[in-house]
């Protein structure tokens, strides 16, 4: 394990300072996930793991990073925010992105088919991820961002899950900043569909002998580019059929 890098990451998160990225070029992805585990143990001691998040789910992001598969991170209770006021000071360089979250109703087996998985879901809802990379200007390599728990720092999940709509692969999505629409997209931007992203996660977790359990929540990946947010900004995310969330950074 690269203990110096781990110590730097933990210190950076605790003190709210930023690191130079793109310098840990000798790490493998497998080692990076081990670092993620150790980082999460240090940052979230005794915290409940609520589920997982998918990262780098869009083709353009994967091409930029030189990867062909998405990555995953872990969601802890401590990083959960309700809609409404969010303290801007809790973050260093926050960016918000619209997502669809899925809630697992029954333990999932890695060999389950897509239809079996859909039948094991409680439902879908709108979510906002608040990213906050430990690396200056979000300049990192894929192993560094995996170790940094995929920039996970905050999220808001609308509590009204609805049965997964048949149109889950083509719902209209909008993210606005201070009332002005910034990005418009379709849920298809996430690996074809948030459910396909979930299927990908099931495969990624299986490689680590992990699986999705009843009650897990999964943030299926950013549907548009993330929007940088400043103190005083109001971010609104709407997903057709699923509702909306408003966050006010105070
Ligand atoms: O959730 C995400 O897609 C982000 C993954 C890490 C990359 C980033 O911080 O932009
Ligand atoms: Mg995300």
Task: Describe the SSE topology.
Elements: H1 3-15, H2 29-43, E1 49-55, H3 59-65, E2 71-76, E3 84-86, E4 95-104, H4 114-119, E5 121-131, H5 142-147, E6 152-157, E7 172-177, E8 180-186, H6 194-206, E9 217-219, E10 227-228, E11 234-239, E12 243-249
Helix pairs in contact: 1-2
The structure holds hexanedioic acid and magnesium ion.
Magnesium ion is lined by residues 53, 55, 97, 99, 129, 219, 221-222.
Write the CATH homologous superfamily.
Answer: Fumarylacetoacetase-like, C-terminal domain
Summarize model confidence as the mean pLDDT. 97
Bin the strand percentage. Answer: 25-35%
Q: What class do helices, strands and sheet pairing give?
A: alpha+beta
Helix tally equals: 6
- Tell me about the largest β-sheet: 7 strands, mixed
Q: Report, as a whole number of angstroms, the end-to-end distance.
A: 39 Å
Ions, cofactors and other ligands present here are: hexanedioic acid, magnesium ion
Order of helices and strands: HHEHEEEHEHEEEHEEEE
| Tally of domains | 1
Low-confidence stretches: none
User: What is the chains' assembly state?
Assistant: single chain
How large, in whole angstroms, is the Cα Rg? 17 Å
Helix content: 10-25%
Number of strands: 12
* CATH hierarchy, class: Alpha Beta
Protein name: 2-oxo-3-hexenedioate decarboxylase
Domain Fumarylacetoacetase-like C-terminal: 93-246
Keywords: Lyase
InterPro entries: Fumarylacetoacetase-like_C, Fumarylacetoacetase_C_sf, Hydratase-Decarb/MhpD_sf
